[in-house]
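Re: folding output
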Amino acid sequence: MVLFGYESFSGILILTISAGIAASVPQLGNVMSLAGSFVTATVGFLLPAVSHTLLLYNQLSRFTIVANIIFLFSGLVVLFAGVYTSIV
C-alpha cells in the first residue's frame, strides 16, 4: 500500500497551482464572474441550438429551426448581458 502515490501528488499539485492562481489575481471574483457568464451562456444556450440545428437539419421542421434560431439569439443576448454585467 502506497501512502503517497501518483494520485495524491497530482491532487496536491492541482491544489497548489489553483491556490497560486487565486493568490496572483487581485480581483479573482471578477474574473470568475466573467468566465462563468461566458461559459454558462455558451454551453447552456448557444451550443445546444447550434448543434441540434447542424446535426439534424434535414430532419427538422421549419418551426423547430425557427425555435433554434430564436434560442440562439436569446443566448447571444444572455451572453452579452452577462459579459457586460461582469465587466461593468
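--- second protein (sequence, then structure) ---
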Amino acid sequence: MDLETLNSVYDNEYLKINKILQELTGLWPFGSKKQNFIRRVIALSTLSIIIMPCLNALRVWCGKDLGICSENICGSLYVMACFSKYLVTVLNEGSLKILYEHVAAMWLSIKDPNEKELMIKYAKSGHLKTVGYCAYLGLAAVGFSQFTMYPVFLDIIKPLNGSRQKLLFVKAEYGVDPFEHYYKIYAAYCIATIVSALAFMAIDTTYTAIVHQNLGVFGVVRYRLRIATQIPPHDSQDYAYNTIVSAIKLHEKSLEFIKLIDSSYSILFLILILQCVIFMAFGMVTIMENMSEPIDLIRMVLFQIGVAVHLFYMNWPGQLVVNESSKIHLAAYQNQWYAIPERAKRLLKIMMIRTTRPSRLSAAGFYDMNFENYGSIIKSTLSYSAVLASFRE
C-alpha cells in the first residue's frame, strides 16, 4: 500500500488524533526517520534522567524508611512503565507497521454502505474513547504537577510572615539541595510529565482505536450472517451460500487481525500488568505513610486511582473483543437458517463450531485482558499491600 493511500485512512476524523499523537512522540512508523530519531532520543533521555533521583533515594533509604522507599519505588515504576512502553513500541515498529497497513486495507476493503456504516459506528466509539482518555490524562498531568505548587500559590494569595514549606514532586535524592533548586527541579518534572503523558496517550489510544477497527469487522461478519438467511428477491440459493462464504472469509481475516494485534502488544501488556501490580501495592503503603500530610496524601490517592484507571482502560478493549466475538457465535444460529439450502446450512455449522470460543487479547499468554482479570488484579494488589504494610515500624 502506498503512503498516500495509507495517510488518507489515518487522516480521517476517527484516526487523525491517534496519528498526530504518534507523530508528536516519534512513534509514527511512516514518518520522517530523522524527526522520529530526534523525538525518540528526547523522550528516552528525559525519562532516563528523571528516574535517577528515585533510584538514588532507594539506595539511600532502602531498609531505613518504608514510606520514602515506597514513594520512590512508585516514582521509579511510573517512569519505568512509560520508558518500557515507549521502548517496546519503538523496537516493535516493524510489526506495528504491518498492523497499521492491515487496518487501512481493511477499512478500504469495506464498500457496502451498510457495512461501512457499521465500521464507522465502531470507529466513532474508538474515537470517543481516545478523546476521553486524552482529556483525562491531560487533566491528571496538570493536576498532579500543580499540586506541588499549592504552598507557592498560597504564599501569593494569602502570604504569611514567612514562606510556607514547599512540596517536592517526589521525596527523592537529587544530589543538590532540592529547595534551593526548587524551580529548576519543578520545571524538569513538568517536562517529564508532559513527555510521559503524551507517550501514554499515543500508545494507549492507538491500541484502542485499532481494536475498535476489528470490532467493526466483527460487526460486518454478523451483518453478513444475518442478511444471508433473509430471502432476497433473486436466486436465494446462490445468494445465501455466497454471502455466508464472504462472512467466513472476512471472519478469518478478522482472526488474523486479532492475532496480529496480540503479537504486537502482548509483551507490552505483560510488562504493564507486572508494573501496575507492584506500583499499586507500594502505592497503598505510601498512602498509609502519608496520612498526616494531606496534600501528599491526596496526590498519592489520585495517582493510585490513575493507575487503576489506566489498567482498566487497557483491559477494556480486551473485554470488548470477547463480547463482540461471542456475538458472532449467536449470529450464526439466531437467524432464518431453516430458509436456506443445505450447503449453506453446513457452512453455518462450521461457523458455529469455529466461533464457540471467543477471541481474546492476552499478556504474552499469561493473562487475558478482560474485566474479570482486572478485578482479580485489584484484589491481589490489596493483599500484597497488606503484606507490605506489616513491615511498617
